[in-house]
UniProtKB/TrEMBL annotation:
TM stretches of this protein: 79-96, 108-134, 174-193, 213-233, 239-263, 335-353, 359-381, 427-448, 460-485, 505-528
Record GO cellular component, one term: membrane
CDD domains linked: MFS_Mch1p_like (cd17354)
Lineage: Eukaryota, Viridiplantae, Streptophyta, Embryophyta, Tracheophyta
Segments forming domain NFD4 C-terminal: 322-535
UniProt record similarity statement: Belongs to the major facilitator superfamily. Phosphate:H(+) symporter (TC 2.A.1.9) family.
Protein name stated in the entry: Nodulin-like domain-containing protein
Domain of life: Eukaryota
Major site of localization recorded for this protein: membrane
Source species: Lactuca virosa
Domain Nodulin-like: 13-259
Topology with respect to the bilayer: Multi-pass membrane protein
């Protein structure tokens, strides 16, 4: 029975994806800073600017994700996961020791280093997961990105709700979970996650689409379940324990796909059992060189003209849709449009997530965990919905993926305006809107980069785009939110400061709304520039579908 779960078998392939989902479900710990930031502020007697710079240090760890990108084509996904799990164990473990008061608060610069390590740990996990799964399922990049990024969004709510249910929002126990759980899950994923040849037939692609639909449904069930727990108020200890047990069962439910495939293969005759597996094993298409035919067929047509013209084409820089090296991608206008628009979206979104604790307290909310969970859960809906919807419209009409980024940017700007007005309930609405739009931004940009610049150097290109997380956190959270909050705040006797009232963050929200308008303009420009590429992708898929249909008759 060992062959049933081998990496190249159908069941083994999907078992790898299930473990990838689990890793993503615990790798959103970078977005949970608001759950324990107030404890750090009190223990270390920090001003808001100092606290925000701690959150920036956490996000600066993502800047070193370039190392994970460079390593992704040189070492195995298992090695990437092992590095990330050990680094996260150390980074969050030291924070737990400080917050639980088992050791005295470390000097400020040392705390910055350990927060940076915690932030960097997720870049190794995310690189291993995203690069491997996008290559394994390259004909369903939108759903893959949406599902995986969706679980990253849910991870904040998963950790927060479990901590609320079992530990009464104890920040020390929360950090203990962030230390131990990701380490254990990554060790499990190391066993199953491998790069394997992608689907090579229309039947395999159709089968993948069907199974991704199952993953989407299961993920939505988990998100709705978490949302119901959040909006139903306080729960007793017994009910909270039942909630956690059911949540763990739901998180294990994606196992149904590889288990079904393993049973299906087991009960078939030997020649039928190995039919699909043999097809996969005989595929010789190099993983790092060949990109999906969707964006390269026009170049192949030119290459057939003559050997002389082929030589000329090979000397020309690649066009959008072809394989790019990192330096070739950096020389394109399209990369920098995508980079800056990404900064406008994720930078402002991170500022809200890092400061959600102080935003809630400023508006008179004693418990801000509900806002952290709402941002996380609705971020999930933004991620998983945009991945599948953008893929659907590419297949049906060749709609450029960046248009969905543009829509999210303008909606995010509206959310910031609502939060600036500070009407009753505006923080609830704002956290939902920001969560959705931040999720769309992440889920759509991941496959967009692979379609524009190819898969050959995708790991490094992805981590270059992720530089926007520390950069955006520094600009919008560390500088903008930190300085403007401290300008409005009053000093406290303990050495920190505090601010109460809608005025504390009003100017911050207005500036971030303007940044989103800039991002919207850039995304529309990129959609116009890439319209031809997505039209070719649409026509290529349409022609293949027609050929498959005619061949079946």
């Amino acid at each position: 029975m060992g062959y049933l779960l081998s990496p190249t078998s159908p069941a083994g392939k999907w078992m790898g994806f299930v473990t990838a989902v689990w890793v993503q479900a615990i790798s959103g710990n970078n977005y949970t800073f608001s759950n324990y930031s107030d404890a750090l502020k009190s223990l270390m007697a920090l001003t808001q600017l100092q606290l925000n710079n701690l959150s920036v240090a956490k996000d600066v760890g993502k800047a070193f994700g370039i190392l994970a990108g460079l390593a992704s084509d040189r070492i195995s996904p298992s090695a990437l996961l092992l590095i990330g799990s050990i680094e996260g164990f150390i980074g969050y473990g030291v924070q737990w020791l400080v917050v639980s008061q088992r050791i005295q608060p470390l000097p400020y610069w040392q705390m910055c280093i350990f927060l940076c390590m915690g932030g960097n740990s997720t870049t190794w996990m995310n690189t291993a997961i995203l690069v491997t799964c996008i290559r394994n399922f390259r004909k369903n990049r939108g759903p893959v990105s949406g599902i995986l990024k969706g679980y990253v969004g849910l991870s904040t709510a998963i950790f927060t709700d479990i901590c609320t249910a079992l530990f009464n929002n104890d920040p020390a126990r929360f950090l203990l979970m962030l230390t131990v759980v990701p380490f254990v899950v990554c060790l499990f994923a190391i066993v199953f996650l491998r790069e394997i040849p992608p689907s090579s037939t229309a039947a395999e692609e159709k089968s993948e689409t069907r199974y991704f639909a199952i993953f989407n449904v299961l993920a939505v069930f988990i998100a709705v379940y978490l949302l119901i727990f959040d909006i139903t108020g306080d729960h007793g200890l017994s009910l909270s324990r039942v909630f956690c047990i059911v949540l763990l069962i739901l998180l294990a439910s994606p196992l149904s796909v590889p288990v079904y495939l393993a049973i299906q293969n087991l009960i078939r005759s030997d020649h039928k059992t190995l039919d699909v597996e043999a097809t996969a094993n005989t595929t010789t298409e190099p993983l790092l060189i060949q990109q999906e035919e969707q964006a390269t067929e026009t170049v192949a047509a030119v290459a057939d003209d003559s050997k002389a013209s082929l030589a000329v084409v090979e000397k020309m820089p690649p066009v959008i849709g072809e394989e790019h090296t990192v330096f070739e991608a950096l020389q394109t206008v399209d990369f920098w449009i995508l980079f800056v628009s990404f900064l406008c979206g994720v930078g402002t979104g991170l500022a809200v997530q890092n400061n959600m604790g102080q935003m809630g307290l400023a508006l008179g909310y004693a418990d801000v965990s509900i806002f952290v969970s709402l941002t996380s859960i609705w971020g999930f809906f933004g991620r998983i919905g945009s991945g599948s919807i953008s893929e659907y419209f590419i297949k049906k009409a060749g709609t450029p993926r960046p248009l969905w980024n543009a829509a999210s940017q303008i909606l995010m700007a509206v959310g910031y305006v609502l939060m600036a007005i500070a009407m009753p309930g505006s923080l609830y609405i704002g956290s939902i809107v920001v969560g959705i739009c931040y999720g769309v931004r992440l889920a759509v940009t991941v496959p967009t980069a692979s379609e524009l610049f190819g898969l050959k150097c995708y790991g490094l290109i992805y981590n270059l785009l992720i530089l926007n997380l520390p950069l955006g956190s520094f600009l919008f959270s560390g500088l903008l939110a930190g300085f403007l909050y401290d300008a409005e705040a009053t000093a406290t006797t303990g050495g920190g400061n505090t601010c109460i009232g809608a005025h504390c963050y009003r100017l911050v929200f207005i500036v971030m709304a303007f940044a989103c308008v800039v991002g919207f303009t850039l995304d529309v420009w990129l959609a116009i520039r890439t319209k031809g590429l997505y039209s070719r992708i649409y026509m290529s898929r349409k022609s293949k579908k027609s050929m498959a249909a005619s061949g079946g008759r």
